[in-house]
Amino acid sequence: MGDNKEQYIPALSYRWLTRFYDPIIGFTMRESTFKRRMVGQAMIGVNQSVLDLGCGTATLTILIKKNNPGAEVVGLDSDTKVMGIARMKISESKLDINLEMGISYDLPFPDSCFDHVFSSLLFHHLTNENKIRTINEVFRVLRPGGKFYLTDFGRPINQLMYLSSLIMRRLEETKGNFEGLLPVMLKEAGFDHINEYARYMTIFGSLSLYSAHKPG
Given this model, what pLDDT does residue 201 score? Predict the structure, then answer.
């Protein structure tokens, strides 16, 4: 997460909470369930390249590599504190994972260099303008035929999830998510086969799991 509001809001909104990020997200957001579903949805081949965009403390990054040891896995984030935690976790895991510092809407990668891009709980930290810029960047760095797996808050599943989302939707960055704008943004960027393949209820609102395909 970023160093100012123009980039992104820090993890859990306040930097002093960063050290508690893993246990809080694990408890409140059904992290293990939805991240395993994300990785299970992807068909990652040997020697394919994978980017975990906004990787945070690298929980998903590590899971991707453990399940696909023959793939090249890269994690990217702009928050120095969470990246410090990520580096420690990766060192303890003894997995070959590259970490890069960078902004989601100005990626430090050439065109068409990844087969798969994952993003988990990043987009609600971005303004609508930067959501669009980020999706365009993902489209740029994906190879033709590549896939994007995006999980974030989406349109409420039911009345309970609508009530849960009332506080979060007051924030400018989350409003577009709860209005169901992410699939629209994906389509406008050029993605096709956009699919909401799973939904999960959390105490903060509904999580939507999307997959999208870059035409090849």
Answer: 80
